[in-house]
TrEMBL record:
Domain of life where this protein originates: Bacteria
Lineage: Bacteria, Pseudomonadati, Pseudomonadota, Betaproteobacteria, Burkholderiales
Protein name: Uncharacterized protein
């Protein structure tokens, strides 16, 4: 299984307005990093209903319809995110098939990425841990399947 690390940050702009009657409703922002090959993805965590309403592509609508038949939408306090690939060189964000679900009450994260274009396809269930030294530009939560002290 590929090494993965998800870092979540408090969204400093949460509940702020960025247009007339347009509010930022993402409680957390974050990044997903995978090794071999190195890939980086971005996530913005919303309540389930706001996440569901942000579905834009047919693949995202299919995921919403698939999850309706599961217990995931009923989980208390669940936060969800669509996944964007981050191209560091071109500085471009591109939507990819998949989603990330964070269950704060149980400290679990479920992640599914279907980015066949870049050879990243899989699902991960990760434990989420609070970071000891949270602060500006430091993550408040981290989910990983590898020891980050040896992360290269």
């Amino acid at each position: 299984m590929r090494e993965i690390a998800v870092r979540m940050f408090i969204n400093e702009k949460f509940a702020g307005s960025y247009g007339n009657m347009v509010f930022n409703r993402a409680a957390y922002n974050g990044s997903i990093e995978l090794h071999n090959p190195m890939q980086k993805y971005l996530v913005d965590f919303y309540s389930y209903i706001h996440w569901e309403n942000r579905a834009q592509t047919q693949e995202q609508i299919d995921i919403v319809n698939e999850l309706i038949n599961t217990d995931l939408p009923k989980a208390p306090n669940i936060l969800m995110s669509w996944i964007l690939h981050w191209d560091r060189d071109a500085k471009i964000k591109q939507t990819v098939p998949g989603f990330c679900a964070y269950l704060p009450d149980s400290g679990e994260m479920h992640l599914r990425i279907g980015d066949e274009q870049r050879g990243t396809k899989g699902s991960w269930d990760l434990p989420v841990r609070h970071c000891k030294n949270a602060g500006p530009k430091l993550p408040v939560f981290i989910a990983t399947n590898v020891d980050l002290t040896v992360w290269q």
